[in-house]
Each structure stands twice: as structure tokens, then as C-alpha cells.
Design goal:
- The chain has one domain.
- The mean pLDDT is about 90.
- The protein is an all-alpha fold.
- The chain is built from 7 helices and no strands.
- It comes from Pedobacter soli.
- This is Ferritin-like domain-containing protein.
């Protein structure tokens, strides 16, 4: 379904600009969530690097809009996003659901819960990014679009590796818990994709 949705989006400049803006919004929201999960003093290099790179992705995607139409999508207002309510709900809902799961499984609270949620939520998001961005890039290549997300694909692969390394240190059976988190994310992502599809014009 995602492939056909993206093909429709890329052929329409207004939809394409909104799509890039929506991805930019989500990367920016992710970066802010990473920063919010930081300890006041114990901040490691990976967290700083990750937050910085997510912010850069948000900036990069926002800049790509000019290749579609310089006049479009200057802000993150609802009118300039695709499926804004679902878009804004997705990451927030994932965070809450994962916190609830980790609290029950590990009896965590405070900073420990925040950090564990950062690890698992970010892992799920990176798995999703590793699927979504290559599909989008393939559609861009096919459409001979000036837009490209190859640099983001490379960095997201690196992020996933870093998250796995941290999760290995966090729990011996991290894979079992990560699988549950992936299920939570998939339900939310599928709802988001369905909402996107509803917004697109019906083609004959």
C-alpha cells in the first residue's frame, strides 16, 4: 500500500511538499523526544549524535521542499502536513504505549523509564525508517525527481546499529521486548498509512 500511496504523492507537487514537510515534522518531533529523555548530567555521545542527526534530517527534508515548490510548506501547521492529527498522534502514542509496557515488564520509573523508552521507541522508529525511506527513494528514482533521501537512508542504518548495541547492554532478552514494541509501532503506523490514503485523490 505504501508504494502506491507514495507514487500518487510524488506526482502531485502540493502533496509531495506536504509529504516532505510531514517527514520533517516527524524527524523533528523524534529529535525533541530524544532530547527530552536525556539525563540532566549523564548524557553520552550517542544520544547527542542521534538528536543532532534527527534534527538535521528534519532540516534536510524541509530544504528538499524547495526542489518541489519554494512557495509551499513554510511551517508545521496542520494545513501544511498530511494527515496532521494522525501524524502528531503517532510518535506520542508510541511513546506512551511503550512506557506502559516497559513499566509493567521492568518496573521502571523516572529517568530509568524515560531512557528505556528512548531505547525501544527509537529502535522501532529506526526499523520503520529502514523500510520507509528506501521505498520512498525508489519511487523518487522512478519518477526522476530532483528530491532524494539517500543520505538519510545511510544515517538511519547507522542509528539502528547503535540502538541494537545499546539494547544488548540494557537487557539480555531485549529482542523479545523489542518484538512487542515493533507490534505496537506497526498498529500505529498502519493507522497512519490508512489515514494518508484517505486524504489522497481517488484516481480512475
Amino acid at each position: 500500500m505504501l508504494d502506491s500511496i507514495l507514487k500518487k504523492i510524488v506526482t502531485d507537487n502540493v502533496l509531495h511538499a506536504k509529504w516532505l514537510n510531514t517527514l520533517s515534522y516527524m524527524e523533528n518531533a523524534g529529535a525533541k523526544k530524544i532530547s527530552a529523555s536525556e539525563h540532566k548530567e549523564n548524557v553520552n555521545l550517542i544520544i547527542l549524535k542521534h538528536a543532532a542527526e534527527e534534527h538535521r534530517h528534519a532540516y534536510y527534508l524541509k530544504k528538499q521542499i524547495a526542489k518541489v515548490d519554494e512557495a509551499l510548506c513554510k511551517t508545521y501547521t496542520n494545513a501544511e502536513l498530511l494527515s496532521p492529527n494522525n501524524t502528531k498522534y503517532y510518535l506520542h502514542a508510541l511513546d506512551i504505549a511503550v512506557c506502559r509496557y516497559l513499566k509493567a515488564e521492568f518496573n521502571l520509573s523516572g529517568y530509568e523509564l524515560k531512557f528505556a523508552a528512548y531505547l525501544f521507541v527509537t529502535y522501532a522508529i529506526e526499523v520503520r525508517a529502514d523500510e520507509l525511506y528506501p521505498v520512498y527513494q525508489a519511487v523518487l528514482d522512478e519518477a526522476k525527481s530532483k528530491v532524494n533521501v539517500k543520505s538519510i537512508i545511510l544515517e538511519e542504518e547507522g542509528h539502528l546499529e547503535e540502538m541494537i548495541n545499546q539494547l544488548v547492554s540494557f537487557s539480555d532478552d531485549w529482542e523479545k521486548h523489542a518484538a512487542e514494541v515493533i507490534k505496537i509501532e506497526k498498529n500505529l503506523f498502519d493507522s497512519w498509512v490508512s489515514a494518508l490514503n484517505v486524504e489522497l485523490p481517488v484516481t480512475a
